Amino acid sequence: MDQNNNHQIRNILVTGACGQLGNEMQLQAATATDYRWLFTDVAAVADGSVVVSLDITDQFAVESFVQKNAIDLIINCAAYTAVDRAEGDAEKAHQLNAVAPGFLAAAIERRGGQLIQISTDYVFDGTAHVPYTEELPTCPNSVYGRTKLEGEQSVVAANPSAMIIRTAWLYSTFGNNFVKTMLRLGREKTELGVIFDQIGTPTYARDLAVAILAAVKQGIKPGIYHFTDEGVCSWYDFTKAIHRLAGITTCHVRPLHTSEYPTSAARPHYSVLDKTKIKTTYGIEIPHWEESLRECIKSLKRQAEE
Q1: CB neighbours of 181 closer than 8 A, spacing ≥ 6?
Q2: Which pLDDT tens digit goes with each residue over 122-163?
Q3: CB-based contact 202:142 (threshold 8 Å)
Q4: Cα 127 from chain centre
Q5: For 281, what's the count of Cα atoms within 13 Å in the CB-facing half-sphere?
């Protein structure tokens, strides 16, 4: 879609609006009033929220919603993200991560519109030693990774003009995430063991939302893109930074090998994503993960004080 066609985008649907990225998209939408934004999640919220109910695993419901609301663009933030639980709940993960994105892609294709699908670093097995580019072969080694890759494939098959954005280590001020867990444990415990031999990049969901809005405004250019914040660290390094920026000094953080902390799903040992393509295509600057972490912790502190 070129810049001229981009003016035709009027109605944007954001699915998974109650999740981390969905909530951040709601904040971005408030700054982009040229568009009519519709926010959905699987369960309707009864507190006067702007979010309405839509089950994206229901093909008829998706088709009906997209047609009735004349949707021009879908940003799919919905996913089954409980990585370990997915190992024993493969069918549900498959429905939400693989089948539903195909329904969304097909429905918007029939309207001549486009889809932005959010994917994951878990489509790689993590055996590389240099950042993954979009062209490298995928090799997921978990149910979560496999179903998210299937989702990418079903999206492209149904809507070749779709944009797929792979991200990693997402956190925000919303919902449950690693940052909030480490803040809580850091205050509760005097000692904590955290894995040091899994390497990646933390990503503030707000930064991803900003990048998505930039793509929307400039015009969606189809293809697969990688987006995380800049820099590289381990979960151990990430935890140390969380505690330092939050002023937590009473918890000793020990480095653990992955083998010392067994999980149901295999994690990539190295899943740093190369972001050159999205930076050059959209001319965006991405902050270092520690700068964004500092902003997130400041926001959490403000919330706690209110």
Answers
A1: none
A2: 999 999 999 999 999 999 999 999 999 999 999 999 999 999
A3: no
A4: 22
A5: 23
Give CA–CA dist 125/115, Å, rounded: 26
Catalytic residue, chosen from 80, 122, 132, 144, is: 144
- Boundaries of every domain in the chain: 3-176+201-231+271-288
CATH of domain 3-176+201-231+271-288: 3.40.50.720
Residue 274 CB coordination number (10 Å): 16
Name the nearest CA neighbour of 243 among 293, 208, 174.
Answer: 293
In angstroms, the CA 2 to CA 9 distance is 11
Average pLDDT of the chain, as a whole number: 95
Tokens coding 289: 């993960």
The CA–CA distances, whole Å, from 81 to 26, 89, 220, 273, 303 equal 20, 11, 25, 19, 25
Q: Is 144 a catalytic residue?
A: yes
CA atoms within 13 A on the CB side of 149: 16
Over residues 155-209, the pLDDT tens digits come to: 999 999 999 999 999 999 999 999 999 999 999 999 999 999 999 999 999 999 9
pLDDT digits (tens, 9 = 90+) for 62-94: 999 999 999 999 999 999 999 999 999 999 999
Q: Is the pLDDT of residue 14 over 50?
A: yes
